[in-house]
Specification:
heterodimer, A: mainly alpha, 2 domains, 74% helix, 0% strand, B: alpha+beta, Glutaredoxin, four-stranded mixed sheet, 3 helices, 4 strands
Chain lengths: 440, 86
């Protein structure tokens, strides 16, 4: 007997099976009995423990909504309206400003940063704005912000985003000043034709509902049992459900989703909620699966939304879990030790000395971090004794640069400019780390 | 028709290539597809956002992978345009 699958899933079911099956397997893996039965050495045990912790704490409530948001940014945000400020005729000052913050909407995935950098340099606003974009892009895309803030703490998440924006302006202007003689007349880039957009109010409501789901579902337990923060924590699942309803209303009202297609998902979510009143993750999972099922089979922009979300998931989730395994193996969970002795790390990048910040920035610039894996690695390093300043230095220099990306950057702007850029990034990351370590 | 797909080898670029082939095969248009994967080459074609799609020298799509229906419509339109010009 064959089950009739929609075309999308006929092609993608092995991936779906691998991702969902892998998630469930790691989630329910009996780690401790396994460690004892196999007498696993400590680094291997730490790798399994850390991976399970990530899977349980961060995948369903945080990564899944963040992926849907990233997909939505790729499909529903009118990129053309941002891109025109990066074109060759855009006012200079404006181009710098837009370049430094537009990574949020333009660079959802790291593989779009380098082409866009090359395009802005060769055919757009020039070297300054292009380097500003190159530096800030990887640090302020939506997945990086969400994951950094959630795992490394709100303070470091904000410091990373703000540091990236501010210093991208400095680096961009310095690059422009250093190489202003090389500026040449540039050909105009072909901007994509603006698609007929929907009213801003509708797109805004749509994103507000999505972000609301992410925000409330991951609302952490408060330190003190009173105040607004605690009140919200008490009713977080009601608020999450409210945002989900709002999302459903937006999809039906403005995104052309027939209301009858929500009958089954609605029943599934409510049923799961009634059956497991103590485990809100169950109805949440039912909701996420329903959203995937409904959008992947709805022709047009909803299908495109899910297609984009799905390709991010395929690209990011395996890399991230691989990164978590490696981080757990080498560095252990916070407070535990992996393969590398904590005192080595404390000696190299502990405290907030110039040397520690420089070591973190320099290592980060050379090392290649697959999308988002910088987060578990920095988490492991902090747990093993890395200082706050060096952690930020690594976060700022790491995703912006790696040996492979240096080669690509060199092919676009040449050796001299590339070396100047690398030098500026390492210097700026060291400086930012020092300031943050001293203040924070 | 001459079709070029631009992208530095990321998942969504492969996806656009695959979907384009599928659409072209189902429409039974004769085509020749090349992939541009090096960053300077992508920039030289005027592409800013990848994945991007070019048909007979005209950039028709940037920064997204449309659904199969829309992709077919894009190729049909380009095909009709090319037939009208000759």
């Amino acid at each position: 007997m064959t089950v009739p699958l929609p075309p999308f899933w006929r092609r993608e079911w092995p991936w779906a099976l691998a991702l969902v099956g892998g998630f469930l397997a790691v989630h329910y893996l009996p780690v401790e009995p396994l460690v004892r039965a196999l007498a696993l050495p400590r680094p291997a045990a730490e790798a399994l423990r850390l991976t399970q912790w990530y899977t349980r704490e961060h995948v369903l409530l945080c990564l899944v909504p963040a992926l849907f948001i990233a997909g939505a940014i790729g499909v529903f945000v009118a990129h053309e309206s941002v891109m025109k400020y990066l074109g060759p005729r855009a006012p200079r000052v404006l181009a710098y400003g837009v370049a430094s913050v537009s990574g949020t909407v333009l660079a959802v995935c790291s593989c779009t940063v380098l082409p866009l950098f090359a395009g802005i340099y060769a055919r757009g606003a020039g070297l300054g704005p292009a380097t500003a974009f190159l530096y800030a892009g990887p640090a302020i895309n939506v997945l990086a912000i969400v994951l950094t803030a959630r795992i490394l703490g709100l303070q470091l998440g904000l410091a990373r985003a703000l540091g990236a924006v501010l210093f991208s302006l400095v680096i961009g202007v310095l690059m422009h000043v250093l190489f202003r003689r090389d500026e040449q007349v540039r050909a105009a880039a072909e901007l994509p034709e603006p698609a007929p957009g929907r009213p801003l109010r509708q797109t805004g409501m749509f994103f507000a509902a999505l972000i609301g789901v992410l925000l409330f579902a991951t609302w952490g337990a408060p330190l003190t049992p009173s105040g607004l923060y605690a009140t919200i924590h008490g009713i977080k699942w009601i608020l999450t459900a409210g945002c989900t309803l709002a999302l459903a209303a937006v999809l039906v009202g403005w995104f052309g989703l027939p209301a009858r297609r929500l009958v089954l998902p609605g029943a599934a979510v409510v049923g799961a909620g009634l059956a497991f009143p103590a485990a809100p993750a169950v109805p949440f999972a039912a909701g996420a699966i329903s959203l995937a099922a409904v959008t992947s089979t709805q022709e047009g922009e909803l299908e495109e939304w899910f297609g984009t979300t799905w390709s991010f998931a395929k690209q990011i989730v395996p890399l991230l879990l691989g990164g978590v395994l490696v981080a757990g193996f080498l560095l252990g969970r916070p407070g535990e030790e992996g393969l590398i002795p904590s005192r080595w790390i404390a000696a190299a990048v502990g405290g907030n000395s110039v040397g520690a910040n420089f070591a973190a920035a320099f290592a980060g610039a050379l090392m290649y971090f697959a999308t988002l894996t910088e987060v578990p690695i920095v988490q492991g390093l902090i747990g093993a004794g890395m200082g706050k300043g060096p952690a930020l230095a690594l976060l700022l220099a790491g995703p912006a640069l790696s040996l492979p990306s240096m080669l690509v950057i060199r092919s676009v702007i040449g050796t001299r400019k590339m070396l100047a850029y690398v030098g500026l990034v390492v210097a700026m990351a060291t400086l930012t780390g020092l300031v943050y370590g001293a203040v924070g | 028709m001459r079709v070029r797909v631009f992208g530095p080898g990321c998942a969504r670029c492969h996806e656009l290539e695959r979907a384009s082939r599928e659409a072209l095969d189902s429409l039974e248009y004769p085509y020749e597809m090349t992939k541009v994967e090096d960053i300077p080459g992508i920039a030289a074609a005027g592409v800013l956002r990848t994945p991007a799609l070019e048909i007979d020298g005209r950039l028709v799509l940037q920064g997204r992978v449309p659904g199969p229906t829309e992709l077919r419509r894009i190729f049909e339109k380009a095909h009709a345009g090319a037939a009208g010009a000759t």
